[in-house]
Design a protein that fits this description.
One of its GO terms (biological process) is carbohydrate metabolic process. Keywords: Schiff base, Transferase. It is an enzyme of class 2 (transferase). It is built from eleven helices and eight strands. The chain is an alpha/beta fold. The protein has a single domain, classed as Alpha-Beta Barrel (TIM Barrel), CATH 3.20.20.70. An eight-stranded parallel barrel has the order 1-2-3-4-5-6-7-8, surrounded by seven helices. The longest helix is centred in the C-terminal third of the chain and has 16 residues. It is globular and about 70 Å long.
Length: 236
Amino acid sequence: MRDLNVEVFADGADIEQMKSAYNNKEVDGFTTNPSLMAKAGIKDYKQFAEDAVKAIPDASISFEVFADDIETMRKEAEILMNYGKNVFVKIPVVNTQGESLISLIKELSAENVQLNVTAVYTIEQVKEIVDAVKEGVPTYVSVFAGRIADTGVDPMPLMKEAVEVCYSKEGVKLLWASCRELYNVIQADEIGCDIITCPGDVVKKLPNIGRDINELSVDTVKGFAKDIKTSGLAIL
């Protein structure tokens, strides 16, 4: 596998998968969100956070607030940040009403809270976040490049510009969110993106990076042959 400068984070909320990825040094950190927690069947957020930090004490983990108003978000952030020094508190750049949360982001960063600002889609949002956070306080700016691509728009121009904006302030890292395929890891690495979050199926493909594609025809046909055998199907 080729050497990567971009850090690879696993995106998910299955505690056993997280432990396995951490123990096997498959990734550099972890991110979670409400949708992934619901999918994983998490019933007790606080217990999940406690268990995750206990199992993964020295790799970055992002936990997201659940509230939609600033006051409650602030209270949730105070709870989440205290689970460990490796915890980043995820705050969306806007709430469900489309109201900017930059004031809360600025306030928490000023208090040295490590933030992962999420649901970012525009360069204007990136600039607002970078302007708002405190110099030297670790901060992730999570731009949803995959979801931008899902609209038929090439996210690369935005991501390249976002790299430059994030590099302008110490402590800020650009995170490529909503990874769709392994090639996104290469793209993120080549433009100088700091972090990319990958779902489990992409993490499993990481060892394929740098593999000789000339081998793939034979491997593909072997796969067909295996499936033919197990299917019991026949032409003659």
